[in-house]
Specification:
The protein is mainly alpha-helical. Helix content is 66%, strand content 11%. It has helices spanning 2-28, 52-73, and strands at residues 39-42, 47-50. The chain is elongated, with a radius of gyration of 17 Å.
């Protein structure tokens, strides 16, 4: 049970850091969510938005971060 509690605290801290980074990125003017590969469709009565390029960029960055974390834990 002790390990589960530590994992929950770690995830909470990770969410805090990621949320803070998203807030800071919004204030710096980086167009995350409005990149040239994001799909946007606006019809007469409907709209659809899928941030494809933003998702790929975030996935690559998180993969690099987790790879570096795993390398330093050894």
């Amino acid at each position: 049970m002790n390990d589960f509690g530590r994992m929950l605290v770690g995830l909470g801290l990770l969410f805090l850091v990621v949320g803070s980074l998203i807030l800071l990125l919004g204030k710096t003017g980086i167009p995350l969510g409005r990149l040239p590969g994001d799909i946007t469709y606006r019809g007469k009565n409907t709209s659809f938005y899928f941030p494809l390029a933003s998702s790929i960029l975030i996935s690559i960055l998180l993969s690099i971060v987790f790879y570096l974390i795993s390398r330093f834990r050894r």
